[in-house]
Design brief:
With 275 residues, the chain is an alpha/beta fold.
């Protein structure tokens, strides 16, 4: 089944569903990304800190898929924030990926204690202007960080990649993103495969549609308009997670999911992390 795209605020098309590779060791990343590409994924989400840009790049190169059909995201790690260090870190990521450009480059965390994300984003603007990233954005930015960036830089980030799943629905950020034309990308969209996939509401909606809990959750994200990047190294799950474009949740299902929001963060707190 074909993955639909969203149009980012600079006109670039981004697949609404991609493949995340956090916690996949470099050697296993090649196999996992190859499996995902064979299953039909075209968007891959990596990061310098994941240590698997090389393994990811090898899978991209050996796939035989045309570069312009792929959508590759990587991210700048916290210890490289600042104008010059960002430019150097970007070169290093491109080299490891074996690419001339990435489709999306993200500031991984605002790391507000460093007070460097504005300068970092100015380096991102240079990378964008040089055509070495087709779009630039941020990750884990809270409303206050986004507002600072919007006030002090000229390019509106195309994406904010944030922790988002039915138990952390991020209403305030989603509204702010919509106001500014920023796409919402959900990390840990399956709640890291922990308790979420056993929540009775999720099981009931899945059963009603003859689908798995993971598929029901991914469908919820897609119908909200989120970009999703589920991760798995299991071939059957990799295939299952992209097989979500031939059914739809109805209003009752969406209302049931809305009631699951409990502000439950699985990951780190962006207000303090990366200082
Ligand atoms: P996820 O929500 O995608 O869950 C992945 C886990 O869920 C798997 O390891 C597996 O245990 C389970 N799973 C996957 N498919 C399943 C299925 N069909 N059925 C049952 N269980 C299944 O969690 P994630 O890996 O944390 O997030 C996805 C991606 O988001 C990451 O790989 C990474 O690319 C990105 N991410 C970004 C940040 C950031 O700070 N920007 C942080 C975390 C993750």
């Amino acid at each position: 089944s074909k993955v639909p795209s969203l149009t980012l605020n600079n006109g670039v098309e981004m697949p609404q569903l991609g493949f995340g590779v956090w916690q996949v060791p470099d050697d296993e990343a090649t196999t996992a990304v190859s499996t995902a590409l064979e299953a039909g994924y075209r968007s891959i989400d990596t990061a310098a800190i994941y240590g698997n840009e090389e393994g990811t790049g090898r899978a991209l190169a050996s796939s035989g898929i045309a570069r312009d059909e792929l959508f590759v995201t990587t991210k700048l790690w916290n210890d490289k924030q600042g104008y010059d260090s960002t430019l150097r870190a970007f070169d290093e990521s491109l080299g490891k990926l074996g690419l001339d450009y990435v489709d999306l480059y993200l500031i991984h965390w605002p790391a507000p204690g460093q007070n460097a994300y504005v300068d970092t984003f100015k380096a991102f603007e240079k990378i964008l202007a040089d055509g070495r990233a087709r779009a630039i954005g941020v990750s884990n930015f809270l409303p206050e960080h986004l507002k600072t960036l919007l006030a002090e830089t000229s390019v509106v980030p195309a994406v904010n990649q944030i922790e988002l799943h039915p138990q952390l629905q991020q209403g305030e950020l989603r509204a702010l993103h919509q106001e500014h034309g920023i796409a919402t990308e959900a990390w840990s969209p399956l709640g890291q495969g922990k308790g979420l996939l056993e929540v009775p509401t999720v099981l009931a909606v899945a059963r009603k549609h003859g689908r798995t809990p993971a598929q029901a959750v991914l469908r919820w994200h897609l119908q909200l308009g989120n970009v999703v990047i589920p991760k798995s190294v299991t071939p059957s799950r990799i295939a299952e997670n992209i097989d979500v474009f031939d059914f739809e949740l109805d209003a009752d299902d969406l209302a049931a999911f809305a009631a699951l929001d409990e502000g439950k963060r699985l990951g780190l707190d962006p207000a303090v992390f990366g200082a």
